[in-house]
Structure formats: C-alpha cells, structure tokens
Amino acid sequence: MKIVGVGCGPGMLTVQAIFAISEARLVFGSARALELAHEFISPDAVVHEIEDYKSLHTLPPGAVVLSTGDPMLAGLGYLPGEVVPGISSLQVALARLHIPMADISVVTAHGRDHGAALLRVQEEVTRGKSVFLLADPGFDVWACAHSLSDLPGEVTITLCENLGYPDERLETGSCRDPPIPKTELFCLVIRPGKERGG
Q1: CATH number of the domain residue 148 falls in
Q2: Whole-model pTM?
C-alpha cells in the first residue's frame, strides 16, 4: 500500500506523488483528495471514495490511499505502507508568512480534543514559541483567542484559510479581535510578541 500526500490545495502534488498516482490501479481517497489528484488518476484505475477510515489498514498491497496535505500532519501516515510526502498547510502557511519552520511548534486540533490542543498552545506561547495550529471545522477561534488573552504581552493570530485555492485568505488579528474563518478549511499561526500586521 502507498499513502500519497496530494497537497493542501490545487497544484501542490510532488512529481513522486504524481508518478505513484498515475501508476495506481486501485485508488482510495476523500472527495477533496480525489479532486486534487483527479487529472493524474489513470482511466483504468478503480477509484473509491473513502467511507470507512477504520478499515483502510485492510486494503490490498497495491492500493494507493490519497491523503490531503501531507500524510504525516494529521493525515493517513499511520497506515502501513510507503508514505509519499505531500505539500502541507504547514509548509504553505509558513512560506506565505516568511516564518522558518524551526521557529514553530506544531499543534493539531484536527479531529482531536480541542481543549487539550488549546492547553498546548498556551504552554508553547508562554514559552515564547510561535504555534502552527491545524484546526478542523468545529474549532472555535474565539475560544482560542480568549484562552490566550490573559497571557502577558501581545499575541497575534493569523488565519490561513483555503491555502493554495483561488480564494486563499490570510488575515492577522489579536486576541481581542481575532480573524474568523469563513470556510471549514483553515489553520492558525499564533505568535507571541508580534505586532499586528500581515
């Protein structure tokens, strides 16, 4: 089995991912992953939209499983088999904001306990670290901002929404006035001691 990252948006497939997808004869993916990879899927391939994520580990050895973004960032990289990396929302967000990856702590709230994720964000920001937070549609940005509002010093929150898509949006605000997502596809970059701005 191969677990192939299809990137976080259109045009973000690596050459290695394109090759793996085009050679596949059995492809599984979410609707969004299949859409991102559709032009490279062979007409001879049998394609299945994933309905049961718990049974993916039982797929045959020749299956290719598409994972949005990078499989190792809250993706399907836990499955057995070869992992082909993808361009993640983490990489794109930090590139857009000119932030070195070594300066960031990564916290995921995607499909996880949001309260535990917020505690981890607080800990990292208190230590003076910037945080990349991978959110999910149910994540409450207002609650996140409120949880950081009592920390000493300024904290900025940058919303990165629909990264790689034509309607990509980056907006920076404060704990008092955080940017609010308009869609379900977003992540946050939280920085202590930064002035408000792009």
Answers
A1: 3.30.950.10
A2: 0.91
End-to-end CA distance of the chain: 41
| Distance of alpha carbon 41 from alpha carbon 185, whole angstroms | 24
Residues 26, 109: one domain?
no
SS3 of residue 99 by DSSP: coil
pLDDT at 172: 97
What's the average pLDDT block by block, 10 residues per block, for the chain (198 residues)?
A: 97 97 98 97 97 93 96 94 96 97 94 91 94 94 93 92 96 95 96 61
Does 24 map to a domain? Answer: yes
Distance (Å) of CA 129 to CA 74, 108, 162, 191, 193: 21, 15, 25, 7, 10
- Domain assignment present for 55: yes
Residues 109 and 52 in one domain: no
